Amino acid sequence: MKVYAVIPSGGVGSRTSNPLPKQYVKFGGKEIIAYTLEVFQNSKSIDEIIVAAQQEFFGLLDSIKEKYNITKLKDPVEGGQERQYSVINAVRSLNADAEDIIVVHDAVRPLLSSKILDDAIRAAKEFGGSIVALKAKDTLIKGDSEISSYLDRNEVYYVQTPQVFKYEIFIEAVKNAEENKFLGTDESMLVYNSNYPIKIVTGSSFNFKITSDDDMKMFDSIIKGMN
Questions:
Q1: How far apart are CA 207 and CA 17, in angstroms?
Q2: Could you give phi then psi for residue 87, rounded to 5 degrees?
Q3: 101 and 4 Cβ atoms separated by less than 8 Å
Q4: Which one of 3.90.550.10, 3.30.110.70, 3.30.1360.70, 1.20.1090.10 gives the CATH number of domain 3-219?
Q5: Are 222 and 137 in contact (CB under 8 A)?
Q6: Mind listing the pLDDT tens digit for each residue in 189-209?
Q7: How far apart are CA 130 and CA 120, in angstroms?
């Protein structure tokens, strides 16, 4: 059984003020995606890494591979117009067997811990699929310009990545999504819609997704504190 890490990296960073896609912005002299790739490079659980990206960044990914000795990183594949299509392109490029494990992780979640990664892989091997999620701790409301209702936070989770599935399960979910023209915001939605169980693995506040200028400031502070 092999474990493949799939990193969709086609985002353009429209929610930040930086002209460069956020995954390629440097902090502490290193690109965000380089921090992410090192998590999987250093994990004994991961056999190969595949990144789906825009072709114009293939050269940069090659240089990151060489500079940081990311030996598990294979040749990148071209990303799609949507995250879902990028992930599908990457997964279909693999020479995977039915029982192999696919680990999908955001390029801009660079602080994933090895424990959470291992827990998610272990759960997927046992149950077929797992997601990392963080239980809500704030008061949650629905509404627009005013409150319309309150949600029970005991039943709500903030979904993170990695999202981990057996290859045969994920491929079937992809085929169902294509047949029904379904576009999900993450991989778990495809698998859930194919009626497979998905185990929830406890995430971490440190495993946040860098999507805004404030997120970048927070990541910068963390990196400076670690150095």
A1: 22
A2: -65, -45
A3: yes
A4: 3.90.550.10
A5: no
A6: 999 999 999 999 999 999 999
A7: 6
Nearest to 179, CA basis, from 192, 165, 194, 195: 194
Residue 127 corresponds to which tokens in the numbers above? 């149950």
Strand partners, 143: 147
**C-alpha distance from residue 188 to each of 11, 27, 114 (Å):** 19, 30, 21
Strands 140-143 and 129-135: unpaired
Domain boundaries, the chain: 3-219
Which residues, other chains included, contact 173 with Cβ-Cβ below 8 Å and sequence gap of 6+?
165, 187, 190, 191, 193, 194, 196
User: What are the E-state strand segments in the chain?
Assistant: 3-9, 26-27, 30-31, 48-53, 77-78, 101-104, 129-135, 140-143, 147-151, 157-166, 199-202
What is the pLDDT confidence band of residue 187, given thresholds at 50, 70 and 90? very high
